[in-house]
Specification:
Belongs to the metallo-dependent hydrolases superfamily. Adenosine and AMP deaminases family. Adenine deaminase type 2 subfamily. This protein is α/β, with parallel strands linked by helices and about 325 residues long. It contains 18 helices and eight strands. The longest helix is centred in the middle third of the chain and has 19 residues. The protein binds hypoxanthine (HPA) and zinc ion. The site of zinc ion (ZN) has 6 residues, from loops.
Length: about 325
């Protein structure tokens, strides 16, 4: 359709994609076999790629998804595994019209299994380099900390020699905070964020996905983040929504993720219209495309289907995404 073609051609930036969330069931089974990883025998979902995909369509919550997400990534061992995973994502992103991608990964989810941080980074960097050379996609890497793990574990990872090296060299642009939200409020990670800011890193955090709106204000006040990942619970808090609009904090909204993880009943319930009306800046993202049934263009199309946005509104959204990116001004000017 003409609108699908328009949305595909619109210069898009993606800011909320977990590379581990780009692991499709076929690749998961292929790597499990190649790397001799035993998948859970007591869960029928792991009997085949088809079963697993069906199970993904019945997620009941963020934690239900995260259970599969952490098992899935256990098949990633070698730098070449991480490279292939990220490359698969960049090929999809390119086909969808992404010009710039700021991608998350979870160092602790790999180092805790005995996979070296350098191995993970080496693989992802190789794919980023290829993405720029062969697809013209510029990239930034963001390390996410797992909020369900003890705070000292996060601090230890932050201070790890190879991690520090990647921060100080600029190989990593910023940090984020992900995983199970409700029991792990933002303020617990104040020290981590203060240290990251002191290192010159950009700051974002998942907040207001399942958690209440005061987790969003806590991320802004206690962690001093400049972006909020998800942030859909903002819509129920008029005063906070005004603040976020005034200070131009960008939300990285993930509509299909919100539906699949049952944060909302349908795409129509994602507060896209409320954000546009309040002047809240946001980008539209895929989150974990292999788990939630679509890449970025599917998310753009789903939003259009539900809200019938005008060309002007789509242009506003695309512009906010470019402005809210963590690339240099020269690259932003190129994309505008
Ligand atoms: N929320 C929290 N943690 C995550 C997500 C998410 O949407 N995706 C991957 N880890
Ligand atoms: Zn996420």
């Amino acid at each position: 359709s003409p609108i699908h073609d328009f949305l595909k051609l619109l210069p898009k930036c993606e800011h909320h994609i977990h590379l581990e969330g780009a692991l499709t069931p076929p690749v998961l089974f292929q790597l499990a076999q190649r790397n001799n990883i035993t998948l859970p025998q007591d869960d029928d979902a792991f009997q085949s790629s088809e079963f697993l995909l069906q199970r993904y369509q019945r997620f009941t919550s963020l934690d239900d998804f995260l259970h599969y997400y952490y098992i899935g990534m256990s098949v990633l061992i070698h730098a070449s595994d991480f490279e292939a995973l990220a490359w698969d994502y960049f090929e999809h992103a390119s086909a969808d019209g992404v010009h710039h991608a700021e991608v998350f990964f979870d160092p602790q989810a790999h180092t805790s299994r005995g996979v070296d941080y350098r191995t993970v980074l080496e693989g992802f960097q190789a794919a980023c380099k290829r993405a720029t050379q062969e697809l013209g996609i510029t990239t930034e890497l963001i390390t996410c900390y797992l909020r369900h793990l003890p705070v000292p574990d996060c601090l230890e990872t932050f201070h790890h020699e190879a991690v520090q090296e990647s921060y100080k060299s600029g190989e990593i642009r910023g940090i984020g905070l992900d995983s199970s939200e409700l029991d792990f409020p933002p303020h617990l990670f104040e020290e981590l964020y203060t240290k990251a800011k002191g290192t010159g890193l950009r700051l974002t955090s998942h907040a207001g996905e399942e958690g209440p709106s005061h987790y969003i204000s806590s991320a802004l006040d206690d962690l001093q983040v400049e972006r909020i990942d998800h942030g859909i619970k903002l819509a129920g808090d008029e005063a906070l929504m005004k603040r976020v609009a005034t200070q131009a904090t960008m939300l990285t909204v993930c509509p299909m993720s919100n539906v699949v993880l049952r944060c909302v009943k349908e795409i129509k319930d994602v507060p896209i219209r409320a954000f546009l009306d309040a002047g809240v800046k946001f980008s539209i993202n895929s989150d974990d495309p292999a788990y939630f049934g679509g890449y970025i263009l599917d998310n753009y199309c789903a939003v259009h289907e539900a809200f019938d946005l005008s060309i002007d509104e789509w242009t506003t959204i695309a512009r906010a995404g470019i402005e809210g990116s963590w690339c240099g001004q020269t690259r932003k000017d190129e994309m505008h």
